Amino acid sequence: MLESTVAAIQPLDEAAMAAARELQGRLTKPAGSLGALEPLSVRLAGLAGACPPPLPEPAAVAIFAGDHGVHAQGVTPWPQEVTAQMIANFLAGGAVVNAFARQAGASVTVVDVGVATPIPGADSEESADPAGPRLVAANVRPGTRDMTVTAALTRDEARAAVETGIRVAGELIDAGAGILLTGDMGIGNTTPSATLIAAFARVDAEAATGRGTGVDDETYARKVSVVRAALARHEPDPADPLGVLAAVGGLEHAALAGLILGAAARRVPVLLDGVIAVSAALAAAAFAPDAVGAMVAGHRSAEPGATAALRHLGLEPLIDLGLRLGEGTGALLALPVVTGAVRVLHEVATFDSAGVAEK
Ligand SMILES: O=C(O)c1ccc[n+]([C@@H]2O[C@H](COP(=O)([O-])O)[C@@H](O)[C@H]2O)c1
Ligand SMILES: Cc1cc2nc[nH]c2cc1C
């Protein structure tokens, strides 16, 4: 499934992009006045192979959740159980992602791809609201292994998680989603994110590592040395993305890479959230360089590694608000920008049709 998905990912359609550029030039606004929205609209036309491309509706957030063996190294102050507890909060509709999803009219799907502790209330008989958040049980293993000691995952485990992401992308698109938004939950997951970024973007451990949920100086120093130790132990080879994900990744990172590949193969845009998403996007781009055509960077996470990853991908984020929450929150806030970029091509009059004089 991974190989056939990668093989299905094709370059953007040049004719549709040329048509969108030409249309942008005829709309009743000075050329270039919509800034980054103009090239975004062109790229989305190229992805859809149509001008105008479809409005990116409805939107679906997929939150992949996993735990991390490297938690044992003291890289985060939060207990591991918070991952499962926050899933219960997502399913009850009480997290920031739920508030923003309601605002954006987006569905929320939570995927347990590797949570280590029981999800409170997950086995309850209570009939769930069919329009409310949904839980997909796809646990590959209860958290990764500690990457400072051994590979976080076997290649088979990493593949299973990637294929879960591909499957979820296909299901959401089959159910009608016009855009997928990445979400994540995993206490400790900014450490594997930093390690993936250092490995794929070839930046130093310190440049790739940030303070995650807000760690103190002592924990930050430990975190950088954990990233360095994992890189030294595994010497991850960016030409072997499955190997990199297995050595130093997380189950949610692997699944997010799969979601991105699945969206790109179906030519549906995928709106990236923060540092976890962009580290997974590096893996997706290593599998299939043309997958970058489907990626839209929602925001610039406060994590420094996110900026390094976006630079490597050649993506400019749509918004920059200093967010560092994850869950898909930054992607949801950026969604109206993406919709606006496409709506312009559908609804704005041309100089000719509106009788507005050109310079
Ligand atoms: O999205 C981001 O850029 C982001 C930046 C910092 C932290 N997070 C979230 O915080 C958790 C990981 O932080 P930490 O400090 O435990 O590695 C995880 O659940 C992420 O969703 C997310
Ligand atoms: C409370 C909390 C909420 C989160 N949402 C995403 N990561 C998180 C980490 C913590 C600790």
From TrEMBL:
Pfam families: DBI_PRT. Gene3D superfamilies: 1.10.1610.10, 3.40.50.10210. SUPFAM superfamilies: Nicotinate mononucleotide:5,6-dimethylbenzimidazole phosphoribosyltransferase (CobT). Pathway: Nucleoside biosynthesis; alpha-ribazole biosynthesis; alpha-ribazole from 5,6-dimethylbenzimidazole: step 1/2. InterPro entries: Nict_dMeBzImd_PRibTrfase, Nict_dMeBzImd_PRibTrfase_bact, Nict_dMeBzImd_PRibTrfase_N, Nict_dMeBzImd_PRibTrfase_sf. One of its GO terms (molecular function) is glycosyltransferase activity. The keyword Transferase applies. Keywords: Cobalamin biosynthesis, Glycosyltransferase, Transferase. The active site is at E327 (proton acceptor). The keyword Translocase does not apply. Its EC number is 2.4.2.21. It is an enzyme of class 2 (transferase). It catalyses: 5,6-dimethylbenzimidazole + nicotinate beta-D-ribonucleotide = alpha-ribazole 5'-phosphate + nicotinate + H(+). Catalyzes the synthesis of alpha-ribazole-5'-phosphate from nicotinate mononucleotide (NAMN) and 5,6-dimethylbenzimidazole (DMB). Belongs to the CobT family. PANTHER family: NICOTINATE-NUCLEOTIDE--DIMETHYLBENZIMIDAZOLE PHOSPHORIBOSYLTRANSFERASE. This is Nicotinate-nucleotide--dimethylbenzimidazole phosphoribosyltransferase. It comes from Micromonospora tulbaghiae. The lineage of its organism: Bacteria, Bacillati, Actinomycetota, Actinomycetes, Micromonosporales. The gene is cobT.
